[in-house]
Amino acid sequence: MQRYFTITQLTQEFDITTRTLRFYEAQGLVSPSRRGRQRLYTPGDRTRIKLILRGKRLGFSLNDIREIIEMYASDPGETGQLKLLLARIAARREELLEKQRDIELTLLELDEVESGARARICELGTRLSPEKV
Asked: Which residues form the HTH merR-type domain (predicted)?
């Protein structure tokens, strides 16, 4: 197992910018050691970066991600971390389902408005084929 990773190795592996890694460092999410001006990341830092990026893809905030990651190292440890993760997943799922319902209602409303506009065009005697409208 590799002992340290450079910023270049991690940015290439995860397809992120050095600015992103430095931001995570500034936020206290990773803590690379330094050799001169070079940042050296541990396998633990690499795992944290992987978890941060997964959390971001799932739509979690950095604060949520930080809380979930940091719980692993403190009481109640991994069990508490997993329970918190499950709670955050349930909340995120409900948020997405609500957005989905809103989108479905908006699409229905657009269908109604479109239908009304087409009917009104017909009433006005203007003949347009469906492709031209």
From this structure: 4-71
Whether 21 contacts 3, CB under 8 Å: no
For residues 62 and 29, the answer to whether their CB atoms sit within 8 Å is: yes
Which residues, other chains included, contact 108 with Cβ-Cβ below 8 Å and sequence gap of 6+? Answer: none
Sheet strands side by side (includes 5-6): 5-6, 38-41, 33-35
pTM score of the predicted model: 0.72
pLDDT tens sequence across 11-61: 999 999 999 999 999 999 999 999 999 999 999 999 999 999 999 999 999
Q: What angle do CA 8, 12, 16 make, to 5 degrees?
A: 95
Q: What CATH code is assigned to 1-57?
A: 1.10.1660.10
